[in-house]
């Protein structure tokens, strides 16, 4: 039998992906020289949990952890992003993804799992974790977009206010959270929607994945459709007896938090890893942030932005 190995496009992680062709069959080789415990072992365990809960994920074909490699099912090259960009009416397709999020949130997740000699712990998201993520905005985006000697002072002022905002999150961290649930991580394979890149899963807020999906920086959705999708989630989730405003509050806070993080990640990918393709998403990321900053919970944060920074100036990335 003839074997062919071809490198394929990767993602924002340190992993490398290869398509292995064995006759008429193909599989994916995942190589992780860095963070291999998370990217290989944790990924295997999370996928086994998802599969048991009837969520379509790649199967593990072979495990070569000592060589930094695993082999998994090939879901092909067609993502939900490829599918949805061509459609005018996107509502029904997005409803299918929200149903997957609801299935994820109904998983009864244990804190500890084992894979052979390895022990995998699922920790709860904390305010500290939210800050660690949004710090990427200050440490990468602001650092390279704003040439100011007052950067450290501005960061401290903004972080202090963000801390107050994060404390106003209503829902507890008690559901399965994928942490990167967006259109590029949903593959369309054999007329099924398959979920990939689940290695960062944790126990967190129910609106985190919802915000990742609806406020996805890769797809420009009208605000009317975004509102409609959030209400659909509300009507089908186990939180439908809660006040809708509490749900919307968490959605908007976590959307801003996540998209501040994304600004930082995309600049880091450009500056550190020479991946410039992500820069094209920065303007729309800012549009999403500004849309959610209208929530009164951000009143003081908006005042700080106006006093110390100008969003119009931050939007300009010419000096990158």
CATH superfamily of the largest domain: Aminoglycoside phosphotransferase (APH), C-terminal lobe
Highest CATH level, the class of the largest domain: Alpha Beta
Helix content estimate: 40-55%
- Average per-residue pLDDT, rounded, comes to 92
Going by helix content, strand content and strand pairing, the class is: alpha+beta
Beta-strand portion reads 15-25%
Radius of gyration: 20 Å
Please give the order of strands in the largest beta sheet: 1-2-3-5-4
Reported CATH architecture of the largest domain: Alpha-Beta Complex
Give an overview in words.
- With 320 residues, the chain is of the alpha+beta class.
- The chain has 2 domains: 74 residues, Phosphorylase Kinase, domain 1; 239 residues, Aminoglycoside phosphotransferase (APH), C-terminal lobe (Aminoglycoside 3'-phosphotransferase, Chain: A, domain 2, Alpha-Beta Complex), CATH 3.90.1200.10.
- It is built from 11 helices and 11 strands.
- The strands form 4 sheets. The protein has a 5-stranded antiparallel beta sheet with strand order 1-2-3-5-4, covered by helices on one side. Strands 6-7 form a two-stranded antiparallel sheet. Strands 8-11 form a two-stranded antiparallel ribbon.
- 32% of the residues are buried.
- The model has no long low-confidence stretch (mean pLDDT 92).
């Amino acid at each position: 039998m003839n074997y062919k190995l071809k490198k394929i496009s990767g993602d924002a992680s340190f992993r490398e992906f290869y398509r292995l062709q064995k006759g008429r069959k193909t599989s994916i080789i995942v190589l992780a020289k860095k963070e291999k415990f998370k990217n290989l072992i944790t990924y295997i365990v999370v996928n086994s949990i998802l599969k048991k809960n009837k969520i379509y994920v790649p199967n593990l074909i072979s495990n070569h952890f000592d060589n930094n490699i695993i082999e998994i099912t090939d879901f092909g090259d067609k993502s939900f992003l490829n599918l949805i960009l061509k459609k005018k009416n996107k509502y029904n397709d997005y409803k299918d993804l929200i149903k997957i999020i609801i299935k994820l949130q109904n998983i009864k997740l244990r804190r500890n799992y084992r894979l052979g000699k390895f022990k995998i712990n699922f920790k709860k998201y904390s305010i500290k974790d939210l800050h660690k993520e949004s710090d990427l905005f200050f440490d990468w985006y602001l650092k390279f977009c704003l040439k100011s000697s007052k950067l450290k002072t501005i960061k401290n002022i903004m972080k202090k206010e963000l801390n107050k905002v994060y404390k106003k999150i209503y829902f507890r961290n008690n559901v399965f959270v994928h942490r990167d649930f967006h259109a590029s991580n949903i593959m369309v394979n054999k007329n099924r929607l398959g979920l990939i890149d689940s290695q960062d899963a944790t126990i967190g807020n129910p609106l985190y994945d919802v915000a990742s999906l609806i406020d996805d920086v890769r797809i420009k959705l009208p605000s009317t459709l975004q509102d409609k999708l959030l209400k659909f989630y509300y009507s089908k989730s186990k939180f439908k007896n809660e006040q809708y405003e509490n749900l919307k509050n968490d959605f908007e806070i976590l959307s801003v938090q996540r998209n501040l993080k994304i600004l930082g990640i995309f600049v880091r990918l450009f500056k550190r890893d020479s991946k410039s393709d992500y820069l094209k998403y920065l303007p729309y990321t800012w549009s999403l942030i500004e849309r959610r900053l209208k929530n009164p919970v951000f009143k003081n944060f908006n005042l700080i932005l106006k006093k110390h920074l100008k969003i119009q100036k931050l939007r300009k990335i010419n000096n990158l």
